[in-house]
UniProtKB/TrEMBL annotation:
Pfam families linked: Polysacc_deac_1 (PF01522)
Organism: Cohnella silvisoli
This protein's UniProt keywords: Hydrolase, Metal-binding
NodB homology domain: residues covered: 96-279
Record EC number: 3.-.-.-
Protein name, as recorded: Polysaccharide deacetylase family protein
Top-level taxonomic group: Bacteria
Polar residues bias spans: 51-60
Class of enzymatic activity (EC top level): hydrolase
Region (Disordered): 42-85
Gene3D superfamilies: Glycoside hydrolase/deacetylase
Single Gene Ontology MF annotation: hydrolase activity
Lineage: Bacteria, Bacillati, Bacillota, Bacilli, Bacillales
Length: 296
């Protein structure tokens, strides 16, 4: 009898240890991908591939009695549908628009510096934010919206969404919509997949939420540590009417975003000199100048 009970107790503790390990590993794989030092940005070759094991819910063993649930946090606000954009090309007649976009923030350093430059030059831009970062820096996310910029969903944990199950995918989208709403009071209409890695399932999920997926037309490759001169040349050579310029407000290689901060006033002045006006991605869509291959 005693031996049997001991065996059962042993089996139970083995299962519990296994569960704890599975949950811990799940947490780690997210942490490794988004550890706040943020190697990120489209095209990073060594980004760890996303795995299903990093969703702790899916590792639970069904036949084990669950421990008591921790205290329930206050309910989230219900996410209202984003306002659809009504095209109004007339409003932007004779204007040559371009949109500046900043991915991967908010953070405690660069996003604020970028906001100050945008305010100084009276430019409105679009920030594609990572849910985990909004959770860490809700005040900066709020500031983005309060200062008249547009805010977009850039996933919860910056994983390659094209490799996720539809359940994990919805989780990445919805959790981020929720944290943006909680921090800023707005429902984001725009979404940009990390690394630009989309799939049909992703586009379906985005469209189901009445959102639009946004690529870019000019990649500054700021995350790779490109020099200011290199990026300046690239932007001037590749910007056209209705263009969307990709930059970052967090992450990338060491000091990479210092170059972005230096580049920003230079391209604002130069593009203005060439007759461009700065718009948010939403305004670009409203104007009809956004390319249909870029905004889906
Ligand atoms: Zn990104």
């Amino acid at each position: 009898m005693r031996g049997k009970r001991t065996n059962r107790t042993y089996a139970l503790s083995r299962t519990l240890v296994f569960m704890a390990l599975a949950v811990w590993l799940g947490g780690c794989s997210i942490a490794q991908q988004w550890d706040g030092n943020g190697l990120s940005g489209p095209g990073i070759a060594d980004a760890a591939p996303a795995t299903e094991t990093s969703v702790p819910n899916e590792t639970a063993t069904p036949d084990v009695v669950k421990p008591e649930q921790p205290a329930v946090k206050p309910p989230d606000k219900e996410i209202p549908a984003p306002f659809p954009i009504v095209p109004n090309p007339e409003k932007y007649k004779n204007k040559k628009l371009v949109a500046l976009t900043f991915d991967d923030g908010p953070d405690g350093k660069y996003t604020q510096q970028i906001l100050e430059i945008l305010e100084e030059y009276n430019v409105k831009a679009t920030f594609f934010v990572v849910g985990l970062q909004v959770e860490k820096y809700p005040e900066i996310a709020k500031k983005i919206v309060e200062e008249g910029h547009s805010i977009g969903n850039h996933s919860w944990s910056h994983r390659d969404l094209s490799k996720l199950s539809s359940k994990a995918l919805d989780n990445e989208l919805n959790k981020t919509q929720q944290v943006i709403l909680n921090a800023t009071g707005v429902t984001s209409l725009l979404m940009r997949a990390p690394y630009g890695a989309i799939s049909n399932a992703l586009l379906n999920s985005v469209h189901q939420e009445n959102m639009k997926h946004v690529f870019w037309t000019v990649d500054t490759r700021d995350w790779a540590g490109s020099s200011v001169a290199e990026m300046h040349k690239n932007v001037l050579a590749h910007t056209h009417k209705g263009g969307i310029i990709l930059m970052h407000s967090f992450g990338g290689r060491k000091h990479a975003i210092d170059h972005t901060v230096k580049l920003l006033p230079i391209i604002i002045k130069d593009l203005r000199e060439r007759g461009y006006e700065f718009a948010t991605v939403e305004q670009l869509i409203e104007s009809g100048q956004a390319h249909s291959s870029v905004v889906k």
